[in-house]
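Hey, I was hoping to borrow your eyes for a little while. No rush at all, and the record is pasted right below.
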Amino acid sequence: MSDGCILPEDLYYWIDKHVWAKPEPDGTVLVGMTDVAQSLAGKIIVVNLRSLGKNLARGKSAGTLESGKWVGTIPTPVAGKVIAINEQIKGQPDLVNTDPYGAGWLIRVEPADWNTDSQNLATGADGVAEYRKKLEAEGIKCSH
């Protein structure tokens, strides 16, 4: 792990946007920011997420984040209806920094078409290798 970035192989990555999707057994999909994104953003101080029931197109904003050096939107890697938001990160936004793949998840979506959306995401050992190649090409390293 020369770049220092944690990239689990069981997630689906939208590499260019530094977001992940994780299909759950109930058919829903968790969405969050990658370790790369939180490292680039720095200490996250505010998280605002879309409302429950909101239908999001792939690439549309799942919410906004603010850190000491960055304010921006979080694109969703999968189209669908927001059925849960992570209420815990409203009071503890730094969970996105400390546990981006666990307690720092952002929204849960009922996907409109997971089969199609997942084809546009990188996953498994090959997906992680592709992501690492991009990080190396852009000189991105994660700090923990």
Remarks:
- The mean pLDDT is 94.
- The CA atoms of residues 15 and 131 lie 6 Å apart.
- DSSP finds five helices and ten strands in the chain.
